[in-house]
Every structure is written in structure tokens, then in C-alpha cells.
Amino acid sequence: MTAFAQDGIARELIDALNQAAEATMTPSTVQTDSAGKAYQMVALASALAVQDAVDSMRNVGTLADAASAAALSQLAATGEARYLEVLKAADEMRAQSVNIFSARAQAAAELLQKFPTR
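User: That's the sequence. What structure does it adopt?
Assistant: C-alpha cells below.
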């Protein structure tokens, strides 16, 4: 290869790199890309918040199940009506956990919907 051909390749390569930089590094491209990354981060945080709410609801359900099992066992053994109150409280715990989950999931969805994408 001659020196001229090598210089031609170098010029073509430099020109291609300059064109790529101009296409990807313009202020509008950088701004759009940054907004997209920010949106993705908020979407990830929202998804994690919903996942945490699901875990919390599951944990409350486990506790309510354990309390219900213990109350039923005691109710069967003693016949005392006070254990019916424990069953009611366990049901209320479950209902509250569903309400809390719904509120958290709704808040995460609203945050994501309101977040600017540009």
C-alpha cells in the first residue's frame, strides 16, 4: 500500500469518526439520552417499590396466618370466645396490607406517569 492510500484510509476513518461523534454528541441527542436514562432509573425505583410492597404484604399474610392458626388451636382447645377476636384482627391485618400495597403501587405508577421523558 502506498503512503497516499494509507493517508486516504486515515482520512476516511477520521471522517467517519467525526460524523459518528456529530450524530451522537449533539446537545439534543445528549439531552434526550440523559432523559431516557433518568426515566429508566425512576422506572426501576418504582418497580422496586412495588416489589417491596408485595414482600410486605406477603409477610403480613404469613404473620396473620400464624396468628390465625394459633387462635384456632386455642379456640378448639379452650372454647374461649376471646380467640375469635384474634381471628378478626388477623383478617383486618390482611385487609390493611392489601390497602397499603394498593396505595404504594398506585403511587409508584403515578410517579412514573408524571415523570418527564424529555
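The first helix runs from residue 3 to 24.
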